[in-house]
Amino acid sequence: MTPRWPERLWIVRHGQSAGNVARDAAYQAGLERIDLTGRDVDVPLSDLGGEQARALGRWFADGHEEGRPNVLLSSPYLRARQTAELFRAAGGCPADIRIHLDERLREKEFGILDGLTGKGIRAEQPQQAELRATLGKFYHRPPGGESWCDVIFRLRALMDTVGLHHGGCRVMIVAHQVVVLCLRYIIEGLTEEEILAIDREQDVANCSITEYCWREGEEGTDGELELVRYNVTAPMEAEHTPVTRSPDPIVGSRG
Description:
With 255 residues, the protein is of the alpha/beta class. The protein contains 9 helices and 6 strands; from the N terminus they run E-H-H-E-H-E-H-H-H-E-H-H-E-E-H.
């Protein structure tokens, strides 16, 4: 009988992006807008982000994990696709493994607030700043954008697909910080308070590993995916590659 869930599931945030770098520079300079043009979907990795992705691939190639993934899923955003491609090229998974792009893994959409820093949102969209302060990031949906709940809704459908098609496989998902957190919320059955507490403790590092393994249930009970570790940066540390943790902006994306 095919297992209900993957034998092992790794969830990885993409490597540092040009958007992460621009976001950090905007906050340090006290600007209202992040200095990027074009679509968020087209933001590439930075040079360091590429090194992080290759370090992650070499870590798996060198046998530090319980095998290598035989299924690779990625957000269609360029920074995630590049991370998956560089991971594969560095030997992180077999070279003939196809990278399956799934739009449900895309970055959280920020609508009219995209590209604004916290200072910018308070200056240009004060009503939205007030709403976010009242509702919190879990439920606040900016015009044209998504709340965390909206992201969770599409990720529940994604996990149904993973269970249906990839039971018993070794699956890696490459996506974004909010996606990593929302998948934890779904898989572990967390509450709003619990996942936001995890979010406050530490930002999800670029190319960090969050890992689950399938645990069989006792006779007559369902098994479950069990968290093995969260936000592990050992692949970068092993190669002395700088670890980056661009925080979740108050509103703007580019994460």
